[in-house]
Amino acid sequence: MRVLITGAATGFGRGAALELAQRGHDVLAAVQIAPQATELLAAAAGRGVHLQVLVLDVTDATDVAVVAREDLDVLVNNAGVMETGPVAEIPLARVRRNFEVNVFGTLAMCQAVVPRMVARGSGRIVNVSSMGGLVTVPLAAAYTATKHALESLSEGLKAELTGTGVQVCTLNPGLFGTGFNDRGAETMLRWFDPAASFSPPQLLAGLSEGLREQLDPAVAVEALVNVVEAESPMFRTVVPEGIVPWIQAVQQRAWRARTDEDLFADPAASADQPAVL
Asked: Higher-confidence residue: 177 or 201?
């Protein structure tokens, strides 16, 4: 299969690109800047695998137009950014950056490849979402809002392409230690002033606390590779599967909660206990 993976310089994208190439697939690994391409090519050579690496900014129309000329079997939309901070305080420019990359950049890539896939009568689009596309995480709502939007776009795209031979699905990872979450948490340090903030101190303290125990990224990489290779994958693949009951409990809480009750549930607590942040 010919597979294009965006955001392949690090994390899930890098791991999946190398593994799929190892398995004999024709992989186009897209990175944002040239130095990342050099490093990824060296990593591929070290594993004895062949990758075609291209520099691609999903928010650049010229770069995306190049993709439209590729005949792809699978597009993996993995590129993403995370900006954190309280909803009432985060600068709008940072919220817009989240949406430009995670939503509009992903949508542009989908629109670039769909015409060829439909004309051929086959193809697959895998949108790497997040558990944050299904629940809202305090202090990361600007980011999780983009993943909620991506869930809606993915569902719409799936419904609208049914019968064309083009498959659409999502991967929804939990908290994995790729460094992405840590870098995202650090973004608010560039502008946030605790002395001027009106957010509860215990909420702010919970941001770093929640990142202490992160999962092995290899688990998510394996899941992503499986979604790419499967004959007919599930529309939504949450990994690890064990967090599904918690996600569903948080979703149900929003239907029952009153204005003076917490919405977010600590994964370590029972579904009926208030959030511990």
From this structure: 177
- Which of 55, 52, 54, 44 lies closest to 22, judged by CA? 44
Identify the pLDDT of residue 275.
38
- The one-letter code for the residue type at 74 is V
Cα distance between residue 261 and residue 254, in whole Å: 10
Residues 135 and 220 in one domain: yes
Q: C-alpha distances in angstroms, 106 versus 50, 63, 82, 151, 152?
A: 26, 13, 14, 11, 12
Tokens of 275: 């959030």
- Which of these is catalytic: 5, 8, 125, 143? 143
Q: Which two tokens stand for residue 259?
A: 């204005």
pTM over 0.90: yes
Which residue, 54, 39, 58, is CA-closest to 100? 58
- pLDDT band at residue 276 under the 50/70/90 scheme: very low
- Looking at the structure, tell me whether residues 252 and 190 fall in a common domain: no
Q: 257 Cβ partners below 8 Å, 6+ apart?
A: 263
203 catalytic? Reply is no
Q: pLDDT tens, 27-66? A: 999 999 999 999 999 999 999 999 999 999 999 999 999 9
Query: Residue 74: which residues within 8 A CB-CB, separation 6 or more?
Result: 1, 2, 3, 4, 123, 124, 125, 126, 228
Give the span between the Cα atoms of 255 and 213, in whole angstroms.
29
Q: How far is CA 211 from CA 176, 183, 208, 266, in A?
A: 9, 11, 5, 13
Q: Is 2 helix (H, G, I), strand (E, B) or coil?
A: strand
**Token pair of 96 as six digits:** 């817009």
Report how many domains make up the chain: 2
- Among 16-30, 100-114, 167-181, 208-222, the range scoring the smallest mean pLDDT is 208-222
Domain span at residue 137 reads 2-239
